[in-house]
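Q: Got a minute? One more chain.
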Amino acid sequence: MLRIGLTGGIASGKSAVSDCFASLGVPVIDTDLISRELVQPGTEGLQQIIENFGDGVLDETGKLDRARLRAIVFASDDKRQLLENILHPAIRDRVEELVAEIIQAPYVIIVIPLLLETRYPIPVDRVLVIDTDEELQLERLEQRDNLNREQARAMLRAQTTRQQRLKNADDIIRNNGSIEELHAQLRTLHHDYLVMADKAEA
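A: Always. Here it is, folded:
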């Protein structure tokens, strides 16, 4: 089974892309959803985060306040690496479990926002980068997370550069236009992946 690693900068449209693939019948494994499962109340992951970052990262109900934690790790490379050391090996193990459960699919989409940044790489056969103009990313990020421009820029700076992502891409989807334009690109790519998977199987 062909393993496609889907990545892209923050607010580039990864969710819209993965939703489209899912609507085409493609299995989708989202590492962001896995990371949320790993930090639910009572989990070892949440306990390790509390031990390393303090209980100030919890909300009033005892759940992880992702916005508070994000503010801490985006302000410090050391803190971000600490969080990666806690979560990324467990995420990688869970991805492999989920891939093993998939039966008779030509290919699988594995959504990995930090595919190029992580020190705990998840094996993929191809890297699919969702590319968006930086100005559009900033606008989406400000609206989505209610941030000012400097906060949005800081989040972009904490990730690998757009140029670095494009340099490492096997496939690129441009997401600067309408949802219809995006879906048209994805239907073409879906056909290409089916052909690749068929050749790999032959």
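A: The CA atoms of residues 1 and 107 lie 5 Å apart.
Q: Perfect, thanks.
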